[in-house]
DNA sequence: CAGCTATGTCAACACGCATTGACTTATCTC
DNA sequence: GAGATAAGTCAATGCGTGTTGACATAGCTG
């Protein structure tokens, strides 16, 4: 396998010299690998190979693995934030996505998987607190609005992550009645968190 | 640091020769390390050192890292299952625990962290499907009972895992009003999942 | 075209880890 | 008490990884 790939890759394209482009290619490959494998299991060599460049370039452009990780994490979150979700369909839409297979949605949930992997790796968890607050919790909080938005955002974010994990280990879409009930229950939870509480002000 | 511990440990106790005991010590240390660090970041040498034995013994008694992991995982789940929770206070109790710092509860949630870490490591995730079904989802399902217990158990388990992650990255207890609202919302979710649906049979 | 600089390549190094087999010694049996 | 066997120790090996600096060359600049 190893010699096959080596031989196949070698004479392909001498690769145009373009700093911007290769930097972007590395970053892009890194996002995927970190999201799929987490910091500890991701391998620089594989990332580089995926981007079609030499490993040494990640040092030149990013300085090291950890720096690359931080950069990729930021870039992943820059994407769209808590964009204009339709409040009427939000809960249902998310629930359906979560009932599906993890593979149908890879593009959109990549950044959340990234977050999940980062949060559960003991190496990277310490780097997260600020980013979580600023780019994850805060947008959700703002989008939710109303009283106690901070606590509600916390619960919403946590549940979401949990469903993400569940979908990850489940590996395939839910079917039939279980799927329907799952969607109902999950969307009920999200919907409940969108409404402001009945408690004292 | 290294020489200090080495010197301190060396002349302490020559360690009685007891296969059962050392095997148990290794397993016990392993449970803690795997739960805290996950499979990939856990280090056999540290586990052995923690158990007060030589690394070579984990090979003798378990065969290798992966085998030790599986053993520890099983042992962790054997503990008590979904034991006799009081249905009246269940939701509230869990919510309070989740609002607290992850450190106050280490003993009881160790096995769930173990599960979480195992589920989110790409190396060990494949080993989990059966165990998840048999020793995690199924007990919850049985405890919940009623219609659509499988789907509800799924949602309950997923939410719980999510809250666990949130508490993990939060690192400290919630305080004041945010804490109260958090507890209310979370226990509402769990309570909701305990009641059988209003949908069609 | 000559020469310079940014860009890309290569081969090694250092380190941590799991694994392994040969060696030592306690504990038990006859 | 002598010998056997289980229990524990030690040092070394091999592999994968991040990192690094020396080297090659494309593409621009004068």
Low-confidence stretches of chain A: 1-13
- Give the topology string of chain A: H per helix, E per strand: HHHHHHHHHH
Number of helices of chain A: 10
Q: Which term fits the overall shape of chain A?
A: globular
Domain module count of chain A: 2
Task: Tell me about the largest β-sheet of chain A.
Answer: none
What is the radius of gyration of chain A computed over CA atoms, rounded to a whole number of angstroms? 20 Å
Structural class of chain A, please? mainly alpha
Name the helicity range of chain A: over 70%
Average pLDDT rating of chain A: 86
Distance between the termini of chain A: 65 Å
* Count of strand segments of chain A: 0
Main interface by residue count: A-B, 50 and 50 residues
**What percentage of amino acids of chain A are in beta strands?**
under 5%
In short:
The structure is a homodimer of 201-residue chains. Chain A has 201 residues and is mainly alpha-helical. Chain A has helices spanning 2-9, 19-41, 44-51, 56-62, 65-78, 90-99, 106-120, 129-144, 149-170, 176-194.
Topology:
The structure is a homodimer of 201-residue chains.
Chain A (H helix, E strand, L loop, with lengths): L1 H8 L9 H23 L2 H8 L4 H7 L2 H14 L11 H10 L6 H15 L8 H16 L4 H22 L5 H19 L7
Helix pairs in contact in A: 2-3, 2-5, 2-7, 6-10, 8-9, 9-10
The structure holds a DNA duplex (30 and 30 nucleotides).
How would you sum up this structure, described in words?
The structure is a homodimer of 201-residue chains. By secondary structure, chain A is mostly helical. Chain A folds into two domains: 3-76, Arc Repressor Mutant, subunit A (Orthogonal Bundle); 79-194. In chain A, 71% of the residues lie in helices and 0% in strands. Chain A is built from ten helices and no strands. The first copy, chain A, has helices spanning 2-9, 19-41, 44-51, 56-62, 65-78, 90-99, 106-120, 129-144, 149-170, 176-194. In chain A, helix 2 (19-41) packs antiparallel against helix 3. The radius of gyration of chain A is 20 Å and the shape is globular. Chain A starts with a helix and ends in a 7-residue tail after the last helix. The model of chain A is unreliable at 1-13 (pLDDT under 50). At the A-B interface, helix 2, helix 7, helix 9 and helix 10 of A face helix 2, helix 7, helix 9 and helix 10 of B. The structure holds a DNA duplex (30 and 30 nucleotides).
């Amino acid at each position: 396998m190893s010699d096959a790939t080596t031989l196949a890759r070698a004479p392909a394209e001498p690769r145009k010299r373009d700093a911007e482009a290769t930097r972007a290619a590395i970053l892009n490959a890194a996002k995927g690998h970190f999201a799929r494998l987490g910091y500890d299991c991701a391998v620089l060599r594989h990332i580089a190979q995926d981007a079609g460049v030499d490993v040494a370039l990640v040092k030149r452009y990013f300085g090291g693995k950890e720096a690359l990780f931080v950069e990729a994490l930021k870039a992943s979150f820059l994407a769209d934030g808590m964009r204009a979700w339709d409040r009427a369909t939000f809960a249902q839409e998310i629930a359906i996505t979560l009932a599906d297979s993890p593979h149908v949605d890879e593009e959109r949930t990549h950044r959340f998987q990234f977050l999940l992997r980062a949060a559960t790796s003991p190496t990277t968890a310490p780097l997260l607190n600020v980013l979580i607050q600023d780019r994850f919790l805060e947008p959700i909080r703002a989008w939710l609005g109303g009283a106690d938005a901070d606590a509600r955002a916390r619960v919403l974010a946590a549940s979401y992550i949990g469903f993400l994990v569940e979908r990850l280990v489940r590996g395939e879409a839910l079917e039939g009645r279980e799927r329907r009930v799952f969607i109902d229950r999950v969307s009920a939870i999200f919907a409940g968190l969108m409404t402001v509480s009945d408690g004292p002000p």
